[in-house]
Amino acid sequence: MIKYLGSKRTLLPQILAAVETLGPVRSVIDPFSGTARVGHALKGAGYQVFSSDHNRYAATLARCYVQADRASVAADCVTLLAELQALPGEDGWFTETYCRKSRYFQPHNGAKIEAIRNRITALGLEPDREAVVLVALMEAADRVDSTTGVQMAYLKQWSHRSHNQLELRLPAVLERPQHGACEASEGDALESVQRVSADVAYLDPPYNQHKYLGNYHVWETLVRWDQPEVYGIAQKRIDCRDRQSDFNSKVRAKQALQAVVTAAKVRHFVVSFSDEGFLSRDELVAMLSERGEVEALSHDFKRYVGAQIGIYNPGGQKVGKVSHLRNTEWLFVVRG
Questions:
Q1: Tens digit of pLDDT for each residue in 219-231?
Q2: What's the predicted TM-score (pTM) here?
Q3: Phi then psi dihedrals of residue 327, to 5 deg
Q4: How many whole angstroms separate alpha carbon 26 and alpha carbon 199?
Q5: How far apart are CA 42 and CA 45, in angstroms?
């Protein structure tokens, strides 16, 4: 899966164990799905999963890793990926924007990405197959990028991996779980929890001012394929300025999460949050206690690589020090 700030890869065993302690559980809703790493793991454990995210790239990841079933898509997608891999590059808007005006990818890989993405559009695939090949392309691009893992900026010098050739691989699509077909959608978290009933809600909301759209704007453009107006050295989409989320506001985050917790049509919760977030442990316990008995589990966590190398200005000069290298990730288990 793609490199991702806030990914719960190392916490997956604890998250799965927490869900298992909640007794007979068949279904889980994940309305802040991100990379869909947690939804994918839950599906693999046999649960019926309902994932959603308000960013298009994240909803596409969920459609691949949560909604699509291997028996339905794998054989066709293997053939299709081989055909796409054989395409010659097409040097156009994407290559100019993200390989020359900025340096996220080497131009030879940018042109390959462009040709493959144009062909995917022309094919008019049904949603699950389209999601699988789009995720294959996203992940292939991620393996040859030149960033620290977020797209707020790119490296001053080309990364070693950026010289490699783009290679499409079939994503790890799972078989349908024993408890029923899974679903993935694009939309607001509050709307998602109001629409779907489940046994458990897994909540992993944004916890500070950093927007995932800004951190992964190239993936949003790759999926939307809309040639947006861009700005700044990083060539961000213009809607990075305009698309707001209450979860990124210190003033509004508590009320936004409270609304989701109150509206969720579930019995139990597993909530992931960081001690670097807007809300304190005590605030979260008080909020969640309205829905049941709360157990707070803490886990020591290594901060992402960008936070470990210091703060630099646009000219590449170091202007800030690393404050700390580790933080605490909380898992709140709520038994309703």
A1: 999 999 999 999 9
A2: 0.91
A3: -140, 175
A4: 7
A5: 5
